[in-house]
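Case study B.
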Amino acid sequence: MAADGTLAVPTAAGAGSGRANTLQRFARRRSTIAFLMTLPLLVVVVGLVGYPAAYGIYLSTLNRRMTGFMEGDWLPTGLGNFEILFDSDTFWMVVWQSCIFAITAVLLKALIGFWLAHMLHHIPTKGQRKWRGMLLVPWVIPPALSTLGWWWMFDPSYSSINWILNIFAVPAVPWLGEPWWARASVIIVNVWYGAPFFMIMYLAALKSVPEQLYEAAAIDGATSWQRLRYVTLPMMANIISITVLFSLIVTFANYDIVRVLTNGGPRDLTHVFASYAFQVGILSSNIPRGAAVSLFMFPILAVCAFFVLRGVTRRNKEQM
Amino acid sequence: MSATAANRGIPGIYHKAGSLRAERRWALWTAYISLIIACIIFLAPPVYMLLTSLKSNAEISDLTLNPWLIRSPTLENYEAILGNPIFIRFFINSAIVTTCVVVLTMVISVLAAFALARMRFWGSQVLATGVFLTYLVPDTLLFIPLYQIVGGLGLLNSVWGLILVYPTLTVPFCTWIMIGYFASIPKELDEAALIDGASWSQMLLKIFVPVAMPGIIAATIFAFTVSWAAFVYPTAFVTTAESMPLTIGVVSQLVRGDTFAWGQIMAGALSAALPPVIIYAFLMDYYIAGLTAGATKG
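Model:
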């Protein structure tokens, strides 16, 4: 050790003269390397998110006259698409339905997820892994495929859910036939798919609450409700808000469940923004209006994204 | 005031001590009962899909039988679906798209995350935030302009179009969690490497990648499951059966005609869901780490 140290000193001093120059070059090289390393990411972010976003805004100001690519006859109509949409009852139905769908589904997911996370946290640690493994299965199966299974369970004549309801003498439910039941079915499937995600997030958050806080609360004679209200919830507030807002974005923009389960029917009453945009833009090939429909999601998503970002930065600062 | 509180507290303690065990037992029972109910509800659809896929068509269409039981299990649906060349085609398409996207994603995000986490340069902070924001952009917001762009490149109805656009789903999140993993590696480690004269590439490949292996596995699993389950893009960009990946293939091609072959549809859906489920079963801890990393790390 001592020999190494004495040897190292003269070499360091000797290298000192040429150092400023190499250091400078080094710094310059470092930023070029960093730029090259982030270049593919920049290409993805700018080319596949930024550019399409700008292009989508441009598209939404056009009219449908020519839907062939690059035929050059897109007649600019300014905000025509938006005006037409504002005048359309179907569009307002879509707005309404998307909001009902997203808010109800996210609330239910959050409540069920929180409850299950709490229950999982209470059982002995040894068993938790097994239960968690089983409860996360709905999240693992690609939603388009598991929704097929639900579709089959909701089938008007072969519904296995109605078969169970029959045992309890409940009359058969027209799951996908009646508008309100169809809306409920879409929400049920979405909650079934999304609740495990909330459970996992909340479980991770619950585990990060220091045990001493509960001990202190217990010494102060806190009831279990008070422990939940004054220890658990404040400690988890940030994670809860991040998860809820993130899920609000994803649920609001959901497409696959509606597409597989109801495809917008009955009578276009279960369309959400995404499925309606698909219907208008791709299937009826009115691309500009489809782009306009999906752009309507943007303000709501932007507000959610802003708060998610704020929550995440705040969390990072806390951890540092 | 404290005296009265203490006075009130003392009999309370005795009272509580007796009921504490009962209360705890009751809590445990509630926990187990809710977990059992949740498990039954959460697992019912996949189990019912499995049951249906093992039944013959005659048994499925017999309304007098209990749909939740199975009389004579048969593998004929699986034989039919796995012998169906178009289903195999879907599988191959999914495998090609997913493999390419996973490799692309990991290369892009590991390189970028290393640069963003370790080489502070002009705009790196803004870019990191931008990456997170793009992660929050859902695929349904931009699929129409992307449809035009992909169409303009002549890549509609081709797996290459999908390989081009899927990174928008995977890259932001993978980069974000890799930044988190890389940032958690102690600075002393790369300082030591720099002193020993390691170049940036050596530092990345010999130190960061091995140390952040759990993160890389978690990100790979994420990229895999997302591109395997992607639905909006293939539904919009692919309308010919030969280039469809599994999700939209099963949904649009097997569900056809007036009489649905439910047994086959369910067999197809389950086989299509198998790869992510297998990965989950074997790498559950990494899977969950990746899932929770988005909000708890970074």
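Residues 2-46 of chain B form one domain. The remaining cases will be described in the next quarterly update.
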